[in-house]
Amino acid sequence: MKSLFRILPAASLMLGLALAAIPAIAQQPAAPAAKPASPAAIAAAKEILAMKNASQMYQNAVPNIVAQTKDSLLQANLNYQKDLNEVAVIVAQSLAGREKEIGEGMAQVYASEFTEQELKDLVTFYKSPLGQKLLANEPKAVQLSMSYMNQWAQNFAETVNAQFRAEMRKRGKQI
Description:
Elements: H1 2-27, H2 39-51, H3 55-58, H4 61-76, H5 81-95, H6 100-113, H7 116-127, H8 129-170
Helix pairs in contact: 1-8, 2-6, 2-7, 4-5, 7-8
């Protein structure tokens, strides 16, 4: 459970970045349809995603989207708060399980980006001692890397700020 809490900040950041990119992606021309993958490739992709515990990234997608939609509707319809709260429960229950579609889509993406043999080789790798170590330690390495990047960015911003101030002082302006 502790490892889950270590992963969440990085996963949240990645999800946030992915969601932030949606408007830019929506403006791009549609990508060509993914090549059809064999059932064996899809199965191998699903196995990889399961080993990586990818479902944790999207397990709360349905309730989160229902809550966001309810909150959005509530802003424009404050007098319907009681009804919207009740309807949110009904909608969440009726759509429960739909987040599995994300996993199916992810498997299709993996299967279109890698050959069937490459996916099978990846499964073999993740089952190896080194692959198991990667699965166990990568979340911590990503979290520590993100912490390092944030600290570096903060320190670098101070350097940039100091240079701005120095250049402005040369121009006789104190900021």
